[in-house]
Design a protein that fits this description.
Distance between the termini: 55 Å
Helix content: 25-40%
CATH topology of the largest domain: Metallo-beta-lactamase, Chain A
Number of helices: 12
Oligomer: single chain
Number of domains: 2
Radius of gyration: 24 Å
CATH class of the largest domain: Alpha Beta
Shape: elongated
Strand content: 25-35%
Bound molecules: MU-OXO-diiron
Number of strands: 24
Largest sheet: 7 strands, mixed
């Protein structure tokens, strides 16, 4: 349980959650980390904490550098309990310590923990001196809760970015030049799609506010620290936050007796005929949080369901609920599916996609089982609407 030095007197002292497989509904197949950072200066400062069950691990890492009882400031960049969960134990140990947080952070921490802790509330752009360093705080509301802020150390050229630029990824490596960059980028993309996407306008504002900072290291609160591919992850955030898409299609469906699945493959043929990659996601076999990773950059979103008891299938309804909450914008949509005697499923899918304000293609439905000529018609009809 060793700390990792980032630069002189600045250490990673977080916790590694190797076994985490579900983060409020998001499948985290590679675990996660909760990154806390220790700055040893005249005022010893801890930036964020860890989930409550990893506090001992964090304390062991801190103790290898300095006696934890000497901590003066704890910066709480974000109230969510994966970062603030260690505060109750720490504050019991450190009754004289001050929590530096945003106005919404103070409000949120009081509501969560009901404790009479000592707070120093900072405003956006405010700087607090801790000795040789000035730490500057910038509010980043809704990235990912109303209370969020980031912290910048000009002396170290480190941006402590909290949830922004994070990934759910448990590793013993700490930096992006030590681990597989494709996996880091995939997990950063999944993180953005499942956590940050609804707040893309706020991300754009945060990127504008942070522009011009001289940054050697981005130190997020989850996963790997960026020191080699900083420009790349910032450029990705620009693209994702502007709902920039690639010319690719997703065909997301569930099926009862394979009729809707046959339609799904007929639709895939339409995209192939137009030289557009189309990926198939049967909801019985794919997790909605993995599908969202692909949604992040897909121009075409095709969703299929048969009708069950006057409704779309529950798997499709669950996907669409999750999807609508994450609010992707600017896509082209298509609803399709089969029915027996009550054509309700496709109508509901179509309405759900319309509510996202997508540019909709004509919905497609077939009674019972599509025959070869139906499938040919489906391919031609979809093909004619692909721009
Ligand atoms: Fe990693 Fe919004 O907490």
């Amino acid at each position: 349980m060793k700390p990792v030095q980032i630069t002189k007197d600045v250490y990673w002292v977080g916790g590694i959650d190797w076994d985490l497989r579900n983060f409020h509904g998001y499948l985290t197949q590679r675990g996660s980390t909760y990154n806390a950072y220790l700055i040893v200066d005249e005022k010893i400062t801890l930036i964020d904490t860890v989930k409550y069950y990893l506090v001992d691990e964090m304390l062991e890492r801190i103790s290898a550098v300095v006696d934890p009882a000497k901590i003066d400031y704890i910066v709480s960049n974000h109230v969510e309990m994966d970062h603030s969960g260690g505060l109750p134990r720490l504050m019991d140990m450190l009754p004289g310590a001050t929590i530096i947080t945003s106005p919404k952070g103070e409000e949120g921490l009081k509501l969560h923990y009901k404790k009479d802790w000592k707070f120093k509330v900072v405003q956006s752009g405010e700087t607090v001196n801790i000795g040789k360093r000035d730490l500057t705080y910038v509010m980043t509301p809704m990235v990912h809760w109303p209370d969020n802020m980031v912290c910048y150390s000009a002396k170290d050229k480190i941006l402590f970015s909290n949830d922004a630029f994070g990934q759910h990824l448990a590793t013993s490596e700490r930096f992006d030049d030590e681990y597989h960059i494709d996996i880091i980028n995939e997990e950063a993309m999944k993180y953005y799609a499942n956590i940050v996407l609804p707040y893309s306008l706020q991300v754009q504002k945060a990127l504008a506010d942070l522009k011009g900072l001289d940054i050697d290291v981005i130190a997020p609160s989850h996963g790997i620290l960026w020191r080699k591919n900083i420009a790349g992850i910032i450029e990705n955030y620009r693209k994702w936050s502007s709902n920039g898409t690639d010319n690719k299609a997703l065909i997301i469906y569930d099926t009862m007796w394979k009729s809707t699945e046959k339609m799904a493959f007929a639709i895939q043929n339409a995209f192939e005929n137009k030289n557009i990659f189309a990926r198939m996601f049967n909801l019985q076999h794919n997790h909605i949080s993995d599908i969202m990773t692909e949604v992040l950059t897909a121009k075409y979103i095709c969703v299929g369901s048969p009708t069950l008891n006057k409704n779309m299938l529950p798997t499709v309804a669950a996907f669409l609920t999750y999807f609508k909450g994450l609010a992707p914008k600017g896509r082209k949509g298509l609803a399709f599916g089969s029915y027996g005697w009550a054509p309700f499923g496709v109508k509901q899918v179509d309405e759900a996609l319309q509510s996202c304000k997508f540019d909709m293609m004509d919905a497609i439905q077939v009674q019972y089982v599509p025959n070869p000529s139906d499938l040919k018609d489906i391919t031609e009809k979809v093909q004619s609407q692909i721009s």
